[in-house]
Amino acid sequence: MLALIAKRLGYALIVIAGVIFVVSIMIKLVPGDPVDIMSAGNPGMTEADKDRLRQQLGLTRPVLEQYFSYMGGALRGDLGISLRQRVPTAQLIVERLPATLELTFWAMVLALILAFTLGIVTALYQDTLIDYAGTIVAVLGVSMPGFLFGILLMLVFSVHYDLLPSSGYGGSVIAVIPRAIVSGDPALLWSRARYFVLPSVSLGFALMAINARLIRSAMIETLRQDFVQFARAKGLPRRVIYLRHALRNAIIPVVTVVGLQMGALLSGAIVVETVFAWPGIGRLAVQAVSWRDYPVVQAVVLLSASLFVTLNLIVDLLYRLIDPRMRDG
Question: Which of 72, 156, 254, 319 has the fewest beta carbons under 10 Å from its own?
Answer without folding.
Answer: 72
